[in-house]
Amino acid sequence: MSVADRSEVGAARRTGPPGGRLRSNPTWWRWLAAASLARLPQTMLPVALVLTAHASTGSFVSSGLLSGASAMTYAVCAPWRGRQMDRATLPRALGWSLLGSTAGLVTTAIAAAAGAPLVVLLVLVVVAAASGAGVTGAYRSLLPYILRPEQLKQAYAIDAVALQLAWIGGPALASVVAALVGPRACVGAVAAVLASGALLSWTLPRRAAASATRRSGPARAMLAQLWVPLLLNVGIGINLGALDVALPALLAGHGRPATSGGLVLAGIFATSAVSGSIYAALPATNPLRSAPTRTVAWVLIAVYGLVTALAAGAPALWLAIACLLVAGLAFAPGDTSAMLLVPEQVAEDRLAEAFGYFAAFGYLGTAAASPVAGWLVTRFGADTGLLLAGLAPLITAVVVPMARLRRS
């Protein structure tokens, strides 16, 4: 890191008050706003792509293919793009990546409005996703450079709550745009939010690229370190991919607008954000905070999957929605704990790559689940899509303690 970079990062760290408090740190708030604006489009995009493809083709299978193509591209490119971010100067590389993704989404929106065939939309979505892959991990990799060490755990927990809020606002915003303007306008709205995140990112303190000697290391060793959070995130990814398709189908099957599926998803993450905020505010002596992070993660993710699976067998729509809202209470603390396992096990100068792998495995789950859920709800009904959404996190969470027992 150059002298200029050290002084800028040092100045950013000195803006925070003593005692580990975050709320008086302007750099923290700027980082949180930029990261949230960059992340909100990722939560809007699955619903936007499902509704856009359904409006263009009338098929939930096509919806699953378009959403799955985006998720698969993120999954394939996130580790590679994360390593690029570790080797690049931030936030400059962040801004250009976001603007590239914005351009791809604007083109997608124009093509959808012009009635382009599905194959053209698929190509454009892949280009946009490749440009934006790895961005979330790069934002998180900045935190150790702009905050004091004692502030990091709380910052990561608050960041996870912000992600839940993005899952509330994203699907809801996409659904509102679809209802008021039309499904094909959703992708344009995603691009507009993404562009604002790109502009704000350039106001963050500069972080130089990691040195060549520190940033090298075999990917296999990192994967071995991160197998627990990666496995848990696969289950979460499958859950989200299945819900993106199953919820619009569930509402449509009960005579409600398919666009209301995004509002139900927003409700799930609303209850999740409430529990996540409580979890982030707990004192360090609370059993949930003092317990091993791995244990909190697999237990709460298993509970989330179990209650979601129960929604598939609910005899009435209101009861299914109630189960999903209750399940959301376990989601945020479990997801936060899974994410916190990453910085606990990886060096600071490889965090963008590590979070890239973390995101990649989640997107792999989403990419696999979206077309499968589309086929299931078309062939057997929305209940089977909900069952897939529940069983995936439940099974992956159960594997964690079983594997640990076998090793011991």
Automatic annotation (TrEMBL):
<dbReference type="InterPro" id="IPR011701">
    <property type="entry name" value="MFS"/>
</dbReference>
<feature type="transmembrane region" description="Helical">
    <location>
        <begin position="93"/>
        <end position="112"/>
    </location>
</feature>
<feature type="compositionally biased region" description="Low complexity">
    <location>
        <begin position="10"/>
        <end position="21"/>
    </location>
</feature>
<feature type="domain" description="Major facilitator superfamily (MFS) profile">
    <location>
        <begin position="225"/>
        <end position="408"/>
    </location>
</feature>
<dbReference type="InterPro" id="IPR020846">
    <property type="entry name" value="MFS_dom"/>
</dbReference>
<keyword id="KW-0812">Transmembrane</keyword>
<feature type="transmembrane region" description="Helical">
    <location>
        <begin position="187"/>
        <end position="205"/>
    </location>
</feature>
<dbReference type="InterPro" id="IPR036259">
    <property type="entry name" value="MFS_trans_sf"/>
</dbReference>
<feature type="transmembrane region" description="Helical">
    <location>
        <begin position="384"/>
        <end position="403"/>
    </location>
</feature>
<feature type="transmembrane region" description="Helical">
    <location>
        <begin position="160"/>
        <end position="181"/>
    </location>
</feature>
<feature type="transmembrane region" description="Helical">
    <location>
        <begin position="294"/>
        <end position="312"/>
    </location>
</feature>
<dbReference type="GO" id="GO:0022857">
    <property type="term" value="F:transmembrane transporter activity"/>
</dbReference>
<feature type="transmembrane region" description="Helical">
    <location>
        <begin position="226"/>
        <end position="251"/>
    </location>
</feature>
<keyword id="KW-0472">Membrane</keyword>
<feature type="transmembrane region" description="Helical">
    <location>
        <begin position="118"/>
        <end position="139"/>
    </location>
</feature>
<feature type="region of interest" description="Disordered">
    <location>
        <begin position="1"/>
        <end position="21"/>
    </location>
</feature>
<protein>
    <submittedName>
        <fullName>Predicted arabinose efflux permease, MFS family</fullName>
    </submittedName>
</protein>
<keyword id="KW-1133">Transmembrane helix</keyword>
<dbReference type="GO" id="GO:0005886">
    <property type="term" value="C:plasma membrane"/>
</dbReference>
<dbReference type="Pfam" id="PF07690">
    <property type="entry name" value="MFS_1"/>
</dbReference>
<feature type="transmembrane region" description="Helical">
    <location>
        <begin position="263"/>
        <end position="282"/>
    </location>
</feature>
<feature type="transmembrane region" description="Helical">
    <location>
        <begin position="354"/>
        <end position="378"/>
    </location>
</feature>
